[in-house]
Amino acid sequence: MGSVQSGKPFKRLMPLIWRPALQGTSFAPPWRLWKSPTCPVLGVSTIVPMPASPRLLSCKSAACRPVSRGNQAGFTLVEMLVASAIFIVGFVSVYGLFLTGVKYRSEADIITRSAVAASNVVNELRLGILPLEETEVGDGPGFRRYRDQPGLFYQIHQSQGLPNSAARKVSMRFVHLPIPQFEVSNDVVQRRFRRAGDPTEGPSIEDLVQRGIIMSYPAVIYPR
Q: Where are the domains of the chain?
């Protein structure tokens, strides 16, 4: 009887445990090893191979093979949360840019309309169609609706004659108000554009000019 180191007991027991049908596959030899302090066959302390269950020995289908979880398709909850956060941040940024673009486009449209209206008002003042006096509404200055531009109101803020000349220096103001009235006072305009932190009566006309809400255009008129 050979010693433990020679490995002869393993060679005699291996064909009985590891079936030839499993040879050539990716399975390792299906036995467990346990150490017996007193082996009745060898009479020495040795390692005896123990067979695995018959089910493992006879299983040849792909369902018995171990499957790596790294090859499974799909997304984890963390990946879905990260993707949702990226989508929300991108959507909010694009929507903010869209609102900013709409605001600037509206302001550019108002400026363009005010410039066209200012040119037309200057021509009408020169032809005497409109009076050159300062615009008065009620008991104080105000704005009149410009009939050729719906929603646009104008005001002749200053009208001064130049020395030794028939020309007059005028300062016109334009504001966009989508209201049906023909005349509005300065008080109405100030209250309409009041913001948080402004006085109860609203910001002054000069503040509205600084904010770009009211457009101011100076001109020199030579009456015909």
A: 8-64, 83-221
